[in-house]
User: Which sequence fits this backbone?
């Protein structure tokens, strides 16, 4: 039973979503602010966080940034503003998805299930040619089964599930120019409701974690009017 943490200072929304997700076989914890959120995450195993943007003491964007710097837990943001900029900011600070208020509960449930599917690779899952190996490129090691990225000195680099999925799409298709549409399909699935700019945002986040100089990238290069290409040689072990 997935354990979801809902962070919102609206008691009606907390009550509504708690009842809804429990009826659909999810364990639910709730928090009204950032302090309560971190207390719960520290003491309980949380599989996904639903985080409202408009919180009184500290907004959801700031909390998302703090949480992402310390944890890979998937994050879906709730926003009352349908503005494109808000969506991009949410992705930039580490959210995996976003839902605009007012929302349909069934849509939110579908988004939760999709993000959880992307976040967890079931034991024994295979791709064509056998089980996924460890993937090495440049000075990095990508452990697909554990969904972990480690540096040459074995330091763990925290990636959101969306960042991991995009990096995996690059690593499994090295030295090929991939359009934004192709990357959306590879990383998030053809049925996902996304947009081209989300890929640019995720690429920027990956560059800041992988590149020595994100402004002059050597691993993920932009191809003008084409998309992106992953430059390093990839070794499978």
Assistant:
């Amino acid at each position: 039973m997935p354990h979801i943490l809902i962070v919102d200072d609206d008691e009606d929304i907390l009550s509504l979503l708690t009842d809804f997700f429990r009826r659909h076989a999810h364990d639910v914890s709730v928090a009204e602010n950032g302090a309560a959120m971190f207390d719960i995450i520290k003491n309980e195993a949380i599989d996904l966080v639903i985080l409202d943007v408009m919180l009184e003491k500290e907004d959801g964007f700031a909390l998302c940034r703090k949480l992402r710097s310390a944890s890979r837990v998937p994050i879906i943001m709730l926003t009352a503003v349908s503005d494109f900029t808000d969506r991009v900011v949410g992705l930039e600070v580490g959210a995996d998805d976003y839902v605009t208020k007012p929302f349909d509960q069934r849509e939110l449930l579908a988004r939760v299930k999709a993000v959880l599917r992307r976040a967890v690779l079931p034991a024994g899952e295979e791709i064509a040619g056998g089980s996924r190996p460890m993937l090495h490129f440049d000075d990095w090691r990508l452990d697909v089964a554990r969904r972990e990225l480690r540096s040459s000195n074995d330091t763990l680099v925290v990636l959101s599930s969306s960042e991991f999925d995009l990096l995996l799409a690059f690593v499994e298709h090295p030295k090929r120019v991939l359009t934004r549409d192709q990357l959306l399909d590879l990383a998030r699935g053809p049925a996902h409701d996304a947009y081209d700019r989300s890929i640019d945002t995720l690429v920027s986040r990956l560059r800041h974690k992988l590149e020595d100089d994100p402004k002059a990238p050597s691993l993920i290069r932009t191809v003008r009017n084409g998309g992106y290409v992953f430059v390093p040689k990839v070794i499978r072990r």
